[in-house]
User: What shape does this take?
Amino acid sequence: MADDRIFQCPHCALQMTVRVPESPVQVTCPTCFQRILLVPGEEPRAPNESYLSEFYRLPEPIIIDTQVPAPAKSQRVIRRAARRAAWHANREASKKKRLRLLQIASVAAIGLAITGTAATYTYRSLSRIPADSWAKVVPGMDSPQKLLSEYSRVCGSFRNTCASIEDAASRDRAIPKIQQIAARLRGIPSRVSELGPLSPTQRSEVDSSALDRVLDEWEQNKACLREVRSKRLLHSIDFFKSLQTFADENEAAAGAIISQWNEQPDDSALSSSG
Assistant: This one.
């Protein structure tokens, strides 16, 4: 009676269970589909020349469909390898996810830095624009109170700058500052003209002493100019030019405010103060 034995395919090395034949037969490997010669008492092999003629006279091959199950130990090795492969796959996926999050965070940080830099640059640029320029672009932004407060601040800046002058070096440093202060006064007459005469509401909002303070500021500026010009150690053509520029702009600004907003215009107010 024939027995079942385990043979190995000579073509693809697949192990298979085959019933030992009583006479030579041919079988077909279920993996590589190559024909195999089985001879009783011999190992399965591909047909050689000595068996070639007999091989093709054999019956049609039997297709083997039963493979040898892997040993239990091999099954454990396979499962362990599968778990290890899954762990490595998850680890690589986690690495890719972290890398992706890091890239997104880096892009976001760079975007925030660029936005912050742009916002800072825009703020600094806009802060250099004179108020009278904004008043032309944004209707209703300017007001008599803002203009009077700005005039007072500009006059205070001029007097503080003059007070800091002690020698030729500090005088030279003060020249560009005085020119910038004069430039801030240059737009006041046009802003006064744009605002026009005070309405009853605006007049109630403007302190009655505000216009008096304009005259006081103007007088203090004139006194400061006289004092600085009297110091012979500070004589300089460029310095005197900057002082004269401020004096002209100051007179134009104060004159526009008084003539336009004084409740009872007095043309002699500035002339008598002069």
